[in-house]
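Milestone M4 deliverable, item 7.
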Amino acid sequence: MKRIALLTLFLTVLPAALAAAHPVPQKKAPMTIERATPPFAAQKPHSFEHHGYRIDDPYAWLRDAGYPQVDDAEVLGYLKAENAYFEQQMAPHQALVETIFQEMKGRLKEDESSVPQKDGDYVYWRRFEKGAQYKQWMRRRVAGGADEVMLDEAELAKGKDYFRLGSIALTEDDRILAYATDTNGSERYTIRFRDLKTGQELPGEIADTLGDFVFTTDGKYLLYGLANENWRIDRIMIHQLGSDPKTDRLLYQEMDQTFQAGVGMTQSRKWIMISAGNHETSEIRLLPANDIGAAPLLVRARQNGVEYDVEDHGDTLFIHTNDVSPQFRLVTAPISKPGEWTERIAPSAMFYMTAVTTFADFFVVEGRENGLDQIEIHSYAGGAPKRIAFPEASYTASLDENPEYQVTKLRLAYESMVTPDTVMDYDLASGAMTTLKVQEIPSGYDASQYETERMEIIARDGTKVPVSVVYRKGFKKDGNGPLYLYAYGAYGYAMPPGFSVLRLSLLDRGFAYAIAHIRGGDDLGQQWHLDGKLTKRTNTFNDFVDVAKGLIDKGFAKPGRVVAAGGSAGGELMGAVVNSNPELWGAVAAHVPFVDVLNTMLDESLPLTPGEWPEWGNPLEDKKAFELIRSYSPYDNVRAQAYPPLFVTAGLNDPRVTYWEPAKWVAKLRATKTDKNMLLLKTNMGAGHGGKSGRFDALREDAEEYAFFLWQLGMAGQK
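Output delivered:
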């Protein structure tokens, strides 16, 4: 199967999830929505007892009993009323929104194109036509010839309010393209097939898929993951091209409700990987890509807390695993005896190994040292690795698109908080680095006008938390400047110190922009993740607050001049810190925030809840987990106090953080908070977790957030 790189929507951030279907209750008249005052949701008695505690939840009714179908008139009426209030309050600031939107749009090259990359007889790339919201997927024969449009997302998106391309795959003979699309934000994808020689769509449309899919070597079969009614991939299916999907065969079924299944392919394309895992445990089976009838080969049976991934070279497996250390190590095993592991690279206290990729003549180890990305080239024969040097003190770097197995150059991606996205080729023989493309900013950008710092701020328990900061030259650290602080802090996802054309609209208005590399991510290694999950979850919230205070102490801002933002699990972070330290924040944006943590983690009927217990704890069975989650769950800890201005978003079709979480949180805040600060809730009625899907539509939502912050800091009139 050809590897065509794709930036998918899937960030395995905290999913709250789809609810199981229930009978739809009798509908009520919709609420009036033409109002200049905020809507207040009705409070309806609802309570339950667990572990000896009584939990009152007067806004539980905002969860439509028929979800994922949302048609309860009262529920929709409230959401529409909040949207109308949002529009009414933002109306005086639409000129500012438009100004920022045009700034952001002006920094995007409208006819943007990726760097072509060879894969077999073709080179492949992606491009935007001028003014287009969606990409075209392109190719051209290496030997020469006309450019071919394999897939035009804009054509597929015509007439749709929402469109998202998921995975795509191409047969080895370069003829048949499989692609998956989502047209409502629910992340239930439909796979379709196209004959690239004739341009015709082929029969065999497959609905309700999720994740990646791969072709067998001969291109006759497609292996894919099927999502069950609870939005969990529990089956890996085999589809024969041209056949009715109803006749597809089951290859693998995952019976553990806390695990998800998936399918992929090794770099050599010799083996199809059938994986199963949750947030802390994995298990992989290998199937020869050229023998669909072979029995899958189990690499090693699942062991709680042990993660591993697999590549191959010749008759040897290369296995990247945390079995003996959270820093990970590399082991090898003969394919004939995949469970017999021999250490190749030992874990290092300084170097956190994040990935291993095998090529025909060498292998690459990626990792982080002191939180900064490193790329090492290793010889199969052994010896000291060659580490690629990068020019800045703070940056992010990684392998880019490298689809072929036999290569003489490596395609790399590089950026920093002041250096735009850069694509380079690294020559393996000479060590020479060739820059192929630097992100073009049509409206202009002078990197010399900006400065970046990486510092450490000591948290309350003595832990040093890294922080990356960027600002325009001339920023005075006298406490008067505004500061934008961002973090995520969950699932072991690091927040790299990368570049953003969007944030220039803040930097050029005098902001400093900081990324707090708090515990919960794996910025400093897997232990950094472990120290921000389960019983140590509150470290994440404390780190963020302590970073804000530390930056205030360093003169970046004063209390009330710090704006903060986070989404999904980062939205949970926002909910926690406005409860604990409302005085710090001048305004806060919480995007699709996971704020109803206790209710969600108690409800095992929600499809993703069981799989989330390794990250958050299982309050259903564990009283201590119940008490801890109850102590920080943002919705459960709203209290009568002054809150900062809040900008909250939701997606009606969001399967990860369901719409009722932010809706319930906002409703409770409205009824409880003692201040008159602005509180806005915007629900995208035709989108999901990622918001609107078109690139310009998404920019406008970013512009709305920035305009809100400027408004609340009294800077709305600043050019």
